[in-house]
Design brief:
This protein is of the alpha+beta class. It is 38% helix and 21% strand. The protein binds adenosine monophosphate (AMP).
Length: 424
């Protein structure tokens, strides 16, 4: 009789639970500041949900899923990750039938039948966000910013933020042909797994940890050098916004991810202080075709997930301890054109140090936006029109006192912050 917890699982209590709750608490605050709403999905789904989304040829679907038949003979699977369930829930509940983008976060246990070791469990805890309904590169920057900020808020200083683009379906197809042609003559030098990947999913070869395979790949063509002009432009805007936000990152042309649904921007946060096989703390990317592929409307989307267990291991290793923080008002920035995105990003990057802030990524109708902001409990709307943009100023509407102010963003930042705090 075996009455111990199953291999690769853990009971969480005491100090570890304090760490977990602290990370959840800090992430909740940040998700709120960035205006993300929680979505809770079931812990298990019909197996097709994961098979169709993650991809038949991935390690997860091939070897790692906890799949079983229920009493009626239906195949169900404990979720190995969060995105597929969120997409299924968004489609099933028609959550896309509201102002887009839809910004949600989730948290909970994930299950993968992997070989357990430090930082690699069979049941592990993830926090993640998904944004559905916008292909604006500003969203990519926001999502990467959020993941990065979460770790710096927790007290990490030296994480590596790696970024790549794996292209859209069009440029990736051309690239695959190029890559296959380059690798084929030396295929026998790759490990057995990579030889199989070559047939089914060549990009995954870049994820192999085998030093001989890594060496063989050194001079092979990289997807980042073979992007179409629109994917190139998108990546350029994303990295431009990140530079504007003073976020350190490294373009990593060999970065790939373990799921088939990714398109375009992908990223990962790693630590040099963790063992290289488990050095990723979190990662994510765009999946612009997944919602359509799963039977929903064609909604471009992006998300990330971070691993809480690994984050705790590293926090302890670096001597980072949980600390406490406090609440703030809600500010909505309504820009009248995409041309003002850099100005908006400046405002967000300053005001999010103090307040819950969001902006309009899609609609540009001021009346609708103010109504929406009122309905969604924002305290202030900051309007950026042509005039404001040109003069580097802001028009602030106080939604509680029905008053309006015009201030210079350049010269009166402190006054603006006091005003938004309600201490005019
Ligand atoms: P993924 O969903 O594979 O992109 O993983 C996102 C993050 O979840 C990783 O960066 C890890 O921090 C964490 N993670 C993934 N698999 C495991 C596992 N088996 N055990 C512990 N953490 C994991």
């Amino acid at each position: 009789m075996n009455l111990n917890s199953p291999r690769g699982t853990a009971d969480v209590f005491g100090r570890d639970l304090e760490y977990r709750n602290y990370i959840i608490g800090e992430s909740r605050k940040l998700f709120k500041l960035f205006n993300y709403e929680q979505l809770i999905t079931p812990t298990f789904e019909y197996s097709e949900v994961f098979q169709r989304s993650i991809g038949q040829s991935t390690d997860i679907v091939q070897k790692e899923m906890y799949t079983f038949e229920d009493k009626k003979g239906r195949s169900v699977t404990l979720r190995p990750e969060g995105t597929a369930s969120v997409v299924r829930a968004v489609i099933e509940n028609k959550l896309y039938a509201q102002n887009l983008p839809l910004k949600v976060f989730y948290k909970g246990s994930m299950f993968r039948y992997e070989r357990p070791q430090k930082g690699r469990m069979r049941e592990f805890y993830q926090l993640g966000v998904e944004v559905l309904g916008s292909d604006n590169p500003l969203i990519d920057a926001e999502v990467i910013w959020l993941a990065n900020l979460l770790f710096s808020q927790l007290g990490f200083k030296d994480l590596n933020l790696l970024i790549n683009s794996i292209g859209c379906l069009d440029c990736r197809l051309d690239y695959m042909n190029l890559f296959r042609a380059a690798v084929k003559p030396k295929l026998k030098n790759f490990c057995k797994d990579c030889q199989q990947r070559f047939e089914k999913n060549p990009l995954r070869i870049f994820d192999c940890k085998n030093s001989q395979c890594i060496e063989q790949l050194e001079n092979s063509p990289k997807i980042a050098d073979n992007l179409c002009s629109s994917c190139q432009e998108h990546l350029g805007k994303v990295t431009g916004y990140l530079e504007q936000l003073n976020i350190n990152f490294k373009l990593e042309p060999t970065l790939v991810r373990g799921f088939d649904y990714y398109t375009g921007t992908i990223f990962e946060l790693t630590s040099g202080q963790l063992d290289s096989a488990q050095n990723a703390l979190g990662g994510g990317g765009r999946y612009d075709n997944l919602v359509g592929q799963m039977g929903g409307p064609n909604l471009p989307a992006i998300g990330f997930a971070i691993g809480v267990d690994r984050t705790i291991i590293l926090m302890k290793q670096l001597g980072i301890k949980p600390v406490l923080q406090k609440q703030s008002p809600k500010i909505y920035i309504a820009a009248m054109s995409d041309e003002f995105s850099s100005f908006v990003l400046n405002l967000l990057s300053c005001l999010r140090n103090y307040f819950t802030c969001d902006t309009n990524f899609n609609i540009k109708n001021i009346g609708k936006e103010i109504k929406w902001a009122q309905k969604n409990d924002f305290d202030f709307v900051i309007i950026i029109g042509e005039e404001e943009f040109r003069q580097n100023q802001v028009t602030i509407k106080d939604l509680r006192k029905y008053q309006q102010y015009e201030c210079s963003w350049k010269d009166e930042k402190e006054k603006i912050i006091e005003l938004l705090r309600g201490n005019k």
